[in-house]
Amino acid sequence: MEENLLVGVDLGGTTIKLAFITEQGVIVHKWEVPTNRDELGSYIVSDINDAIDEKLREIGLKKTKLLGIGMGAPGPVNMEQGLIYEAVNIGWKNYPLKRLLEEATDLPVFVDNDANLAALGEMWRGAGEGADNLICVTLGTGVGGGIITNGQIIHGVNGAGGEIGHITSIAEGGAHCNCGKTGCLETIASATGIVRIALEYIQKGQSSELSKVLEANGLLSAKDVFEAVKNNDTVAKDVINTIAFHLGLAIANLSNGINPEKIVIGGGVSKAGEILLQPVKEYFSKFTFPRVRIGAEIKIAILGNDAGVIGGAWLVKNELGK
Amino acid sequence: MEENLLVGVDLGGTTIKLAFITEQGVIVHKWEVPTNRDELGSYIVSDINDAIDEKLREIGLKKTKLLGIGMGAPGPVNMEQGLIYEAVNIGWKNYPLKRLLEEATDLPVFVDNDANLAALGEMWRGAGEGADNLICVTLGTGVGGGIITNGQIIHGVNGAGGEIGHITSIAEGGAHCNCGKTGCLETIASATGIVRIALEYIQKGQSSELSKVLEANGLLSAKDVFEAVKNNDTVAKDVINTIAFHLGLAIANLSNGINPEKIVIGGGVSKAGEILLQPVKEYFSKFTFPRVRIGAEIKIAILGNDAGVIGGAWLVKNELGK
């Protein structure tokens, strides 16, 4: 007899990631479908239902083997009501995702914010394994975050818990952020932020291999900056030192409140590995209360793009087990 | 028939506060005994037991009416084991407070950090009433804190959760803190910090009524600074603006992670009321993610010195009800 499976769904602006996952958190099937944003995202629920049905047919599995769906959406979520307050990239506003997806699939559905599910995924099967107190930061195009205390995600009073990307890193004169503020960590430690800061340094006229990369390619990437650090480029090293300072300070100060066991850094930028991790650790140590410093370990995420669907599966398992 | 009562105990460096409290959180009897710090605090447990017995005799109450003791200690605590990791002011190290006080009193005992109990007190019966997500900052000689998420205190991995006083406010060149770091919020927003900053301003030679107060009294208090603000003294206003900036930024950035419903500011310094609260609110608004800003309300604590014993009573009620 085949084992029961959990369904993880991770909704992004361009693709929907889906996976069938065992109750031990092992991915058995994983696939993607494009995100249809037409008519304010009103096709997404039926697209997910179709994608699941097709996969079941393809692998010859009965739907009764699926225990439920755990789905992440990019925006603040009211978990109890299963409501997406707002998902700007999708077009949803006060969208009753849980109810609609349950009606479409006839399966129990649990929803949460995508960055929160990534944190739960890393807690369950990733770099944060076993940590009841965990901070997860995702450095991608933007900066996302999920915080777990006492084994539970911090949703906060209106679903905006874990907005680590919007910690104010530069109090006066920082760059504008999409959120309406200035000086947010996201304007510094995201891939976009790293490039912005690198361009600022280049414009000051300091000699750097980054100027040559920019001239040759017409653009610059965060990866270019990390590559230049490997070649000992002074400007690139200054840029990464600036990023590490602000990231280290932000997670140190959050940790002075949270006292986490593990801090997991994920997202595309985290692929830089030790080049980023080493200076972040140094600044983190400098800015944390001694007891907090002793208790915490900073690690690079290991689940990559699978963190969200694995977190979704954990959510189903956890909610059904209540 | 008389109702059952909860015992709240709040251990400080100079006095032990005790109270008998109803299951609704109303204080029925409240008294203090001096803290005997002799022989590394080894008399404290029996002093507490004696104080309770004497009070019972005095009011003619049977001990069977007491449901249990909730006690706060000044230091990091392992709640499950009932262990005080360290209470520097008392002399305790890895002190099995729960076990010893249970043996002495024959009552169930639950222990937590004193700032955490103050936060629970304010959540139950004070300015944070009903908030499942709450940040409590106590501005006294030092700066203490307690954070509640999902209705539970954040203890963190080794009991150092809520160390808001040791958030790094000044990354480079800040004043030395007792914790070993520099630039902690405690060096700025405590009564001591306010005086230190005021003296720095005075030494710069700017004209201020604070110089006259200092000359007349030979010393300066945080209260003097707030009084001078009321008289529109420019230097005093600059000092409080500096304090408000750092306090507002620190709780804003913590809130960007926690998304609290209420932020409660207590301790002696908070008696300044609106003079402090107004600029703190302004900086808080400036530095918070919009959704976090909308969700949060900043208030002055209302329980004063009773917050700890009321939090202790809540702890007993909550733990016995599990």
From TrEMBL, chains A, B:
<dbReference type="GO" id="GO:0004340">
    <property type="term" value="F:glucokinase activity"/>
</dbReference>
<dbReference type="Pfam" id="PF00480">
    <property type="entry name" value="ROK"/>
</dbReference>
<keyword id="KW-0418">Kinase</keyword>
<comment type="similarity">
    <text>Belongs to the ROK (NagC/XylR) family.</text>
</comment>
<dbReference type="InterPro" id="IPR049874">
    <property type="entry name" value="ROK_cs"/>
</dbReference>
<keyword id="KW-0808">Transferase</keyword>
<dbReference type="InterPro" id="IPR000600">
    <property type="entry name" value="ROK"/>
</dbReference>
<keyword id="KW-0547">Nucleotide-binding</keyword>
<dbReference type="InterPro" id="IPR004654">
    <property type="entry name" value="ROK_glcA"/>
</dbReference>
<keyword id="KW-0067">ATP-binding</keyword>
<protein>
    <recommendedName>
        <fullName>Glucokinase</fullName>
        <ecNumber>2.7.1.2</ecNumber>
    </recommendedName>
</protein>
<dbReference type="InterPro" id="IPR043129">
    <property type="entry name" value="ATPase_NBD"/>
</dbReference>
